[in-house]
Write a structure and sequence with these properties.
signal, nine-stranded antiparallel sheet, about 260 residues, 2 helices
Length: about 260
């Protein structure tokens, strides 16, 4: 009987050892990540971390307010925090990746997925495609315009739209008010235009007579819907109807 009890005790002890080792191996990556995060915070380099990791540091005006949108450019993180009794539209928080300096302003206006904040003659605008800072004095001048590299909602879903599923992007072009993608599988086949402010989208097949070159810099893309004519090339985006221009905007970047 004692022998059986000894074997049972020995077996239970071994199981506990294996469970303990398993737990250590499971939690060790988290412990290492936490230690690394602490080192980053201590060294002052925490602004080089992923924006989700930045949430461990309070970015919203109070601990009760959480970010509902996160945007990232080459130089900045922008968070849109939930609102409170002071501002129902929420807060705009901009953090510099280099210096860690932070700007926090109430959101004054929201159009679709575009958020606007104002501060003493300066308007901050962020959309899933662009961060724009405009200064208004006697006129208006663009202080900063940066492409958004990542735009996600609180649930981790992407906020930006682009080519339809299964298609690749041959061209991505931006004007003052639009993002345009030329999409397709083997060759360019689809024209997709998105308004920066409202995030509205139009998707059309390209006309077979467009001027396509393997060098996209020399290409010109044409799409037609009814009597509306859409034209995109390296220099200009033009939308016209019956010979009258509805949109005519300079292409700001093209790749």
């Amino acid at each position: 009987m004692k022998i059986l009890q000894f074997k049972l005790y020995h077996k239970v002890s071994l199981n506990l050892v294996f469970v303990s080792l398993g737990c250590l191996s499971f939690f060790s990556p988290f412990a290492k990540a936490k230690e690394q995060h602490y080192k980053e915070l201590k060294s002052g380099n925490n602004f080089n971390l992923h924006p989700v990791q930045l949430l461990q540091k309070q970015v919203c005006p109070s601990a009760q307010l959480l970010p509902k949108r996160i945007f990232e450019t080459a130089k900045y993180y922008v968070y849109i925090c939930k609102g409170d009794e002071k501002t129902s539209l929420g807060y705009y928080v901009q953090i510099s990746k280099n210096s860690g300096s932070q700007i926090t302003l109430p959101v004054n206006k929201k159009v679709g997925e575009a958020y606007f904040a104002k501060n003493t003659g300066v308007i901050y605008t962020v959309t899933p495609y662009e961060l724009l800072i405009t200064k208004f004095t006697k006129g208006s001048s663009v202080v900063l315009r940066e492409k958004i590299n990542s735009a996600i909602a609180a649930d981790g879903q992407s906020l930006s739209k682009s080519c339809p599923t299964g298609n690749t992007s041959f061209v991505e072009a931006a004007t003052k008010n639009y993002i345009v993608y030329i999409c397709g599988r083997q060759t360019p086949e689809i024209y997709v235009a998105i308004t920066k402010n409202g995030n509205n989208t139009i998707t059309l097949p390209l006309q077979s007579n467009y001027n396509y070159s393997t060098n996209t810099e020399d290409s010109e893309y044409i799409a037609i819907k009814g009597k509306t004519y859409y034209l995109l090339n390296r220099k200009i985006l033009k939308v016209s109807r019956n010979g009258r221009n509805l949109v005519k905007e300079k292409v700001l970047y093209w790749h």
